[in-house]
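tokens incoming
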């Protein structure tokens, strides 16, 4: 109920404002975690030099995505020279770096060659910014105010994975939820936002690395946290961390965030097999047999998250193969091979879908089942992160810059 009221309030606010007074983008995949903005306009065409508001070189490297709160943009970075992890704040109007704060220092540890020491997107409740990092010993959570002062820092557990870390924190109620699924002592926990005190801890049945960011939803008036990882798709009570329902699969390891809609959850696992499944929500216990709506094992993604907009489930896989599914039945409505390699997850605004390739090229399509291309844009820099949109502006993190497109 608490989540439903929050989402209703956000929707009412968003529908009462125009694109110049639009939504914040406070965390991974926006205000509702689904990649969708309720703003009514957004940039359609740009190049490396056209329709660029500003381009700021970032100090340090990372694969985290930007978040936007009012007049501020926040992003994280790692500095290999001094092994620090940093939270950086920029001005939305000018791109000026307002502050750059070291919040942790330690070896990066073992990671995938395409990962970084700052791959987890931060989240904000409008008062504090919460960021997560790992080193060769554990997982660390830090909270900063908007002036860059560290309010608290916690180490909720050890962390081990040969691939590094990437899951993003999620805000719910009085807490911030941390996904520590890993090959070591796996956990998911909620820390109180004001002081970092642990409120609950969920222990997965299997210690297995997964980097999917959880997604909050409401099922029959009950708030649920949809979690994929450790070879399962499950729903937790976000107030207690207790398991409400679970189902094996669709694969063992997960990176992308699931989608929710039409009374179902759409779960995508990427290793060892790139498979997807849809489960009907509302059950208890093991719902694999009773709740399974459909499966798909063709050209499914590992890293890029799907996006559900109305009656169309848009999917781009890591190799750039596009698929549009009918969400209720899983029927394939359209496929297209129009992209290069893709790590970025699509976002939607003004009934358009934005797909960024690793090259920095972006294809914008209409939200339908025809793969109707509206624009194709080249930013001129490699881009493996997911853009944010706020007040009619796109914020895109490239390999070395943060770029505002107007």
């Amino acid at each position: 109920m608490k989540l439903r009221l929050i989402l209703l309030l956000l929707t009412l606010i968003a529908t009462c404002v125009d694109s110049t007074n639009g939504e914040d983008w406070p965390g991974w995949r926006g205000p509702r975690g689904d990649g969708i903005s309720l703003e009514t306009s957004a940039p359609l065409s740009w190049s490396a030099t056209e329709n660029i508001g500003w381009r700021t070189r970032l100090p340090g490297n990372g694969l985290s995505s930007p978040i936007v709160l009012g007049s501020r943009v926040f992003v994280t970075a790692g500095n290999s020279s001094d092994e620090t992890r940093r939270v950086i704040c920029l001005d939305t109007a000018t791109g000026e770096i307002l502050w750059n704060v070291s919040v942790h220092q330690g070896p990066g540890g073992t990671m995938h060659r395409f990962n970084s020491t700052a791959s987890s997107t931060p989240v904000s409740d409008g008062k504090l910014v919460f960021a997560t990092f790992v080193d060769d010993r554990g997982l660390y959570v830090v909270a900063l105010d908007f002036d860059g002062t560290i309010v608290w820092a916690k180490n909720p557990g050890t962390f081990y994975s040969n691939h590094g870390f990437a899951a993003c924190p999620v805000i719910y109620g009085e807490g911030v939820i941390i996904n520590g699924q890993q090959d070591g002592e796996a956990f998911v926990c909620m820390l109180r936002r004001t002081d970092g005190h642990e409120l609950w801890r969920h222990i997965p049945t299997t210690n297995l690395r997964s980097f999917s960011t959880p997604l909050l939803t409401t099922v029959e008036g009950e708030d649920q946290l949809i979690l994929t990882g450790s070879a399962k798709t499950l729903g937790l009570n976000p107030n207690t961390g207790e398991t409400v329902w679970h189902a094996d699969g669709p694969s063992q390891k997960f990176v992308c965030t699931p989608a929710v809609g039409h009374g179902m959850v759409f779960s995508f696992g990427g290793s060892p097999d790139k498979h997807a499944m849809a489960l009907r929500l509302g059950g208890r216990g093991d719902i694999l047999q009773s709740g399974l709506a459909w499966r798909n094992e063709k050209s499914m993604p590992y890293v890029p998250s799907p996006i559900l907009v109305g009656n169309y489930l848009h999917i781009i896989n890591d190799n750039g193969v596009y698929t549009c599914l009918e969400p209720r039945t899983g029927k394939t409505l359209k496929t297209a091979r129009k992209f290069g390699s893709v790590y970025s997850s699509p976002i939607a605004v003004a009934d358009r879908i934005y797909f960024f390739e690793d090259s920095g090229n972006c294809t914008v399509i209409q939200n339908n089942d025809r793969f109707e291309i509206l624009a194709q844009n080249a930013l001129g820099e490699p881009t493996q992160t997911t853009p944010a949109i706020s007040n009619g502006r796109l914020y895109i993190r490239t390999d070395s810059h943060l770029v505002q497109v107007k």
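note: Residues 5-20 have pLDDT under 50 and may be disordered.
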